[in-house]
Amino acid sequence: MPYRLALDIGANSIGWAALTLSPDGHPIGLADAGVRVYPDGRNPKDGSSNAAARRAPRAMRRNRDRYLQRRGNLLNALTRFGLMPADPDARTQIAALDPFALRAAALERPLLPTELGRAIFHLNQHRGFQSNRKTDRGDNESGLIKDAAANTAAELARTGHLTLGSWLAARHRRHAGVRVRLAGRGKLAA
Question: Residue ranges per domain, the chain?
Fold first, then answer.
């Protein structure tokens, strides 16, 4: 017996019906019908995508992997150019040096190659990131980071420090904070 299949394809479902046909091709009856409903792919409570729960950890893993790769590449380059020893034990001794003190000392004396390598390695570990999307909009936005940068520049001028490194070294000697904290304990400390 000839039949015709009708489909209704939606975002979360597929409806179907099988119609029996007469010999001349006209529908004469309904053979069967049904619907297949697919899960929507969203959290029913807040409407967020189910993939978001996987996306955030994956992005964190990728950032961590990139950081480790950058750090390894830099360490290899520093070793290749003689700014870091190849021996792991000697490298551990270099790692024990205070990078803030080395950055401040670089203003007054030439650093040894391994001291310079330690300072460069420290800068790589604590480097920042600014998205191109923010820089493309111009200098018309203000926020916590911009205000904090202006406050830090004013503090450098007030205390007479030539560089951010020497100012951080002085804070580190006083056991004051040297890391940016946007939330949680210490976010209001100067």
Answer: 3-37, 63-127+154-176
